[in-house]
From TrEMBL:
Gene3D superfamilies: 3.30.70.270, 3.40.50.2300, EAL domain, PAS domain. This is Bifunctional diguanylate cyclase/phosphodiesterase. Residues 301-434 form the GGDEF domain. SMART domains: EAL, GGDEF, PAC, PAS. InterPro entries: Biofilm_reg_signaling (IPR052155), CheY-like_superfamily (IPR011006), EAL_dom (IPR001633), EAL_sf (IPR035919), GGDEF_dom (IPR000160), Nucleotide_cyclase (IPR029787), PAC (IPR001610), PAS (IPR000014). PROSITE patterns: EAL (PS50883), GGDEF (PS50887), PAC (PS50113), PAS (PS50112), RESPONSE_REGULATORY (PS50110). Residues 443-697 form the EAL domain. It holds the Pfam family EAL. Residues 162-213 form the PAS domain. It comes from the Bacteria.
């Protein structure tokens, strides 16, 4: 049967009230409840019933209201368990409220602790009330009859001391709780219990209260003989002789260690990262705020925040598994902590992201120097289960003032600067500036708009001609995607392809490019009997995860475009990633006649040995490779040998990014087969490509 519960809910949001009631009912309570949705109703409703418990949401427009409720209860000495329903982000405030009398915090998203806490608080309330009655009764009766060592030993930890605070009596429960023997305790002062957590002033207040003949109540954290802590809720009753002088004190203690440990755990979990034991974001931000106030007061300890992210940590998780990844993160966190000044605060923000607050620099330049040194030292190899793990990290720096006035903003800007390092030069340090913010905003906008761009038909395929030197004609084209953004104009694929890859949108984009390219080839064949192939770029997400072979077969069957008209371009790093997976896919495509080009050769591994293993048709030499080629240079010799080696394997060579005629002459001399670049034409829309072909008469020498 459901157990009855009288419940006062302080919550302004009615849907939240229903959720709480549902939860309470679902857990076997039959609640009689009232709701306080406005602060004015509070006083009236609290008097209305003898409430078992108060549940209070944290979403009051003014948090001060909750402080007011708690003060009201305290002032009127109303003892009703007060439970806060708080989101993680409000834990810090909620913990402050626990100091003001709230009994516990229930996590807003997982109310599963609620019934347990309700039950516990109800039990404790009954217990407290009984104890209060006992204590009052005791105080009176003991005063009357002045008898010591009463039978209350049965329920509580009891001790008596003389007027000087020397222990004269302890009951068995006291002995059990403290771990000391009777002999060790009698004759000692309570100092033997090395009470903690209270200031000198608080102890002074306690003594003053009881020396004035008043009862003192409060929580005390004591130390057992074995060094561990035990908490007690204590009532100290002074006894006075007829002349008013105090001759002894009786202390009645109720052990609350379990509750305190649970509270401590809650505090710990709310502020520390469970994996590395480093402070978490919330605690870190609180420390930054603290340092900002100190800096404003004393002009010392200029707060600078480093955001540090390990480069490509995914690789570790993928190759060694998440568990090993976690262990490596713990080692990394320890190393980071050791490398930082003891005054620095080091935090783990999540996954492979850390932040450091330094306050021992006088300038941002000094901070940058420290950050550079830190990154250098962090690179040291981590020996792990027989492996040697080499990790680099990228760092962003933001300082108080220049990059924000509060912790949140400074940290956010340090992260922006860190992302800037990642995108410009991995493994380096960048100091935040406003332009980075603008760039991030731009990227965020692009990311948002990208999702809708396909439906809105904003993509268009451009084609860049590829010239065959021996045939003296254009016999290939490369399809390059373009995004006509309604506000930003043409957005470069280098800006949105990585995002499309991350979001999976690249699959439909590539299908679109393939389809358009095939239509382009078909149109030209049918209208002008012009035969050529179009190359489509394939991202790893498409090449490895999709059945590209079926895509091509489907296109051929639907549109009747011969396989020879299609070409795919894959990058070297993709091809090498997993040879046993890539080779069969490539072989199948090659067998039906689809040409395969290895893109951007010369930027990655540039492994000539691997070239031999792959079923290719063409090798495309990256434009950066061409920049440094001067006749007779080392680069020129390398270029010639790559061309010869590719020819030896039966592959054609395309030189990309050919911009001037001297490069063209050189490439012809080196027996390069094909060229692509602005010398011939920039990528063109379909209409422009058609008219380009009509007017093309060859390269003007
Ligand atoms: P990529 O595959 O290396 O394409 C060649 C890039 O070089 C193109 O840039 C092209 O416009 C540019 N280019 C060609 N000739 C010259 C030249 O003479 N000088 C200079 N400076 N640049 C030249 P684009 O169109 O901006 O594309 C950039 C990259 O975006 C491509 O590099 C490719 O990796 C990617 N991409 C483009 N379209 C697609 C697509 O449909 N799918 C996938 N997965 N990636 C694409
Ligand atoms: Ca390409
Ligand atoms: Ca390329």
């Amino acid at each position: 049967m459901a157990s009855p519960l009288s419940l006062l809910i302080i919550e302004s949001d009615s849907s939240e009230v229903f959720r709480l009631i549902r939860e309470v009912k679902a857990n076997g309570f039959s609640p009689l409840y009232q709701v306080v949705s406005k602060a004015e109703e509070w006083e009236e409703k609290i008097e209305e019933e003898d409430w078992d418990v108060i549940l209070c949401g944290m979403n009051w427009p003014d948090e001060k209201t909750i402080h007011d409720f708690l003060r009201f209860l305290k002032d009127r000495q109303i003892d009703i368990p007060f439970l806060l329903i708080a989101e993680k982000s409000k834990y810090e405030t909620a913990l402050q409220m626990m100091k003001e009398g709230a009994a516990d915090i229930i996590d807003h998203s997982t109310l599963f602790r609620l019934p347990h806490v309700l039950e516990r608080e109800r039990r404790e309330l009954v217990f407290r009330r009984e104890k209060e009655i006992t204590a009052n009764y005791l105080e009176q009766s003991l005063k009357e009859i002045q008898v010591q060592k009463f039978a209350l030993d049965q329920a509580n930890i009891v001790s008596t001391t003389d007027a000087n605070g020397i222990i004269t009596y302890v009951n068995d429960k006291f002995i059990q709780a403290s771990g000391y023997s009777k002999e060790e305790l009698i004759g000692q002062s309570h100092r033997i219990l090395k009470s903690q957590d209270r200031t000198k002033e608080e102890w002074y207040d306690l003594w003053e209260t009881i020396q004035n003949g008043k009862v003192w109540k409060g929580e005390i954290r004591n130390t057992k003989k074995d060094g561990t802590s035990f908490w007690v809720e204590t009532t100290i009753v002074p006894f006075s002789a007829e002349d008013g002088s105090i001759f002894q004190y009786i202390a009645i203690h109720n052990e609350i260690t379990n509750r305190k440990l649970a509270e401590e755990q809650l505090t710990h979990d709310a502020f520390y990262d469970s994996l590395t034991e480093l402070p978490n974001r919330a605690l870190f931000l609180a420390r930054v705020e603290q340092k900002i106030s100190e800096y404003n007061l004393f002009q010392k300890g200029f707060p600078i925040v480093f955001s540090i992210n390990i480069d490509n940590f995914k690789r570790i998780n993928h190759s060694l598994g998440n568990e090993s990844g976690d262990e490596i993160l713990v080692i990394y966190a320890k190393r980071l902590l050791k490398l930082c000044d003891p005054s620095a605060i080091v935090t783990r923000l999540g996954a492979d992201s850390f932040a450091v607050l330094v306050t021992d620099c006088f300038s941002i330049e000094e901070g940058t120097e420290i950050a550079n040194k830190l990154l250098e030292n962090l690179k040291e190899i981590i020996p792990f289960q027989g492996y040697e793990i080499f990790l680099t990290a990228s760092c962003g720096i933001a300082s108080y003032g220049m990059a924000g006035k509060d912790g949140e903003n400074i940290l956010k800007n340090a992260e922006i600067a860190m992302f800037h390092s990642k995108s410009s030069k991995v493994g380096t340090v960048s100091v935040f500036n406003q332009r980075m913010q603008e760039k991030i905003n731009y990227q965020l906008e692009i990311q948002n708009d990208l999702k809708k761009a396909i439906e809105k038909n904003e993509f268009i395929v451009y084609y860049q001609p590829i010239f065959d030197l021996a045939a003296n004609e254009i016999c290939h084209w490369e399809a390059l995607i373009r995004w006509r953004h309604p506000k930003k104009g043409m957005v470069s694929p280098t800006d949105f392809i990585p995002m499309a890859e991350d979001s999976g949108l690249i699959v439909s984009l590539t299908k679109f490019v393939l389809e358009e390219s095939a239509l382009f080839a078909k149109k030209m064949r049918e209208e002008s009997n012009y035969k050529f192939s179009v190359a489509v770029n394939l991202s790893p997400q498409v090449f490895l995860d999709q059945n590209i072979f079926h895509w091509v077969v489907d296109i051929q069957q639907r549109l009747g475009v011969p396989y020879e008209c299609l070409q795919v371009e894959i990058t070297e790093s993709l091809a090498m990633k997993n040879l046993s997976e890539t080779i069969p896919i490539l072989s199948n495509l090659k067998d039906i006649g689809v040409k395969i080009a290895l893109d951007d050769f010369g930027t990655g591994y540039s492994s000539l040995a691997y070239l031999e293993k792959l079923p290719l048709s063409t090798v495309k030499i990256d434009k950066s490779f061409l920049n440094n080629v001067i006749p007779g240079s080392k680069e020129a010799i390398l270029l010639v040998s790559i061309i010869h080696m590719a020819h030896g394997l039966g592959y054609k060579v395309v030189a990309e990014g050919v911009e001037d005629i001297s490069q063209f002459h050189l490439l012809r001399e080196y027996e390069c087969d094909l060229i692509q670049g602005y010398l011939l034409s920039k990528p063109l829309s379909l209409e422009d490509a058609v008219s380009f072909l009509e007017n093309f008469t060859g390269i003007q020498e």
